[in-house]
Structure formats: C-alpha cells, structure tokens
Amino acid sequence: MPRARTVYKIVGTETGRTSTGVVKPPDSVKQHGVPFQIIHKHEDVTLDVSIDGIDVRSMYVADKGYVFLEWDYSQAEDRVVQVLAKDFDALDQMNRKDFRRNQHGMKDDRHTMTAVMCCDKPFEEITDYDRQIGKKTRHAGNYDMGKHQGMLNFAKYGVFLSEWKVGKLLEKFHATNPAIRGVFHKGIQEALAANDCILMSPLGRRHIFFNRWGDDMFKEGYAFIPQSTVSDANKFSMLRIRRQLPYIEFEIVQECHDSGLALVREGIVKDAAKIIKKEAEKPINFKQCSLSRDYNLVIPVDFKVGTVWSELETLKI
Questions:
Q1: What CA–CA distance (Å, rounded) separates 192 from 31?
Q2: For 259-282, how does the pLDDT look when each residue is reduced to its tens digit (9 = 90+)?
Q3: What crossing angle do the helices spanning 215-244 and 269-280 adopt, rounded to 10°?
Q4: pTM of the predicted structure, to 2 decimals
C-alpha cells in the first residue's frame, strides 16, 4: 500500500505545538510528502484555487482490514482559558450532556449560544455558518485578537466579515465575558511582571518571553498556557497509549495539537478507543501553573472511525 509521509518538528512553534513539513534532503534523496497538519476539513481560501480539505482527505484510505480512528479534544483551549479566568460556571456549561438541537441540527452548546449573541438570532435559526461565527469570535476574544487580525482569521475558515463587524462582535463578547480580560488577561500580565517575563504551564512547560513589554508580549502570553497545555496533554497521552497497544494492530499516523489519528485493526477498535479515552482524559492539575488554580481539569475526547479519512463517522464509547 502506498504511503504519504511528513516531517514533524517538535520545536515548530513557541507554544510547544508541533508543526509539519515535507521530507527533504538529507533526510531523503528527493523532496516528497505533505505537511499533514494543513489538511483540515475546511476550504483553504489562502490558495489561488480553492481546495476543500474534505476532497484532499478523501485520497487517504485505510489498509485492508484496518480503519482510521480519530480522537479530538472537545473545546480544549477554551476549557483551559475558563480555568485561568476562574469562570467555573462556564466549565459546568461545557460539561453538560442534555443538549437540545434546533431545526438545523445545531446543539445549544457554548459556541452556538455565543452565535446567538453575535448574530442576534434566536437559537432555532442558528445555522452551522452562524455557529462558526460564534466559535471564531470566542477564540479571538480569548486571546485578545484585534479586529483586523480577527477578520483575517475568520476568512481562513470561510467566514467573510468586515473589520468593523468583527470589531463589534468582539465588543459584544468582552461585554458578556468580563472574566477574560478582568481575570485571565490581567493575571497573565501580572505573572509576566512578577516572574521576569517567564510563564509556566500546568504540565511543566517553561517559556521566557523576549519581546518588548507591551501588547505583543501580552498576546503571546495569553496563548501560551492554553495552547501548550492542550498540545502537551495530547502528546503525553500518545506516549502512554503507544506503550499499551501493539504496533501490528495500532499505529499513530497523525498528531495535530488537540487531536490524533491512528490506523487500527478492525477487531480492536473499541478496545483501543477505551485505552485512548482513559489516557487522554487524565486530569490536569493547575496548582503548578503560573496562574495557580486548585482545579483538576478533565478535557473529554470525541471519536470518529472509518476507512476513508474524509468519511469518518462518530463512534460512541
């Protein structure tokens, strides 16, 4: 069976996330492969020709007798942000199980309810496009993104809004989520000032910031703990998972910050998923974090399975 290859760079980003690239000399005689982490589910509007990530993923097919098993942390970075913001009511909201769905199939989760606020629509009228607006607004607000950068970030995922509109959405977000700036952002600035511009994640990753003191440094600081915590939790769990499952039946083929993809023999899919769930959902304690919180965070994982990467279906465990 032909194989697609990539190169993982463990120092690819400043927050501890990996990055991927093509295989080049001297690692290979000639250049080949693809950066796996850029193959997402959405249309890539940064290219001259629009390419749907689903179309690209459809080229990847599991070996005979095997399936793809994908696991994905649920609202992972937002959960970390809410711990740092001490917004425990928001965490309780994210841990709900009794969701309602509207006529468009959208459940009344955190991103959908943010869309209700952003789009000035009742829950029953919220579509998937509206939900993406809510999701991207929350992400931009959590990291204090400006309206121009927010507009560009929205566009990457096919949501095209004016800079003025994005600015208004962010104003609404911060007005209804005062703990983001009042507790989380303020706490990061105070920690940087008190610790020689050093931050520590709850999983022990230490980072020194060399930027000039000001907004650019602060914004990097806001992103560091959530992004590094989720990425490290994912990578550490993969090491534990790898030790418990034999290579002949289970092979990890992708790591993507808050998710993983494995090639699994058909007969052990549910057993493998149970091991993944146990290891990936280990509590993260925030006592040793620069913004110390006496809280054990469990980030739930969702599973999908299938023989073609673009056609994975939900797997209940």
A1: 42
A2: 999 999 999 999 999 999 999 999
A3: 140
A4: 0.90
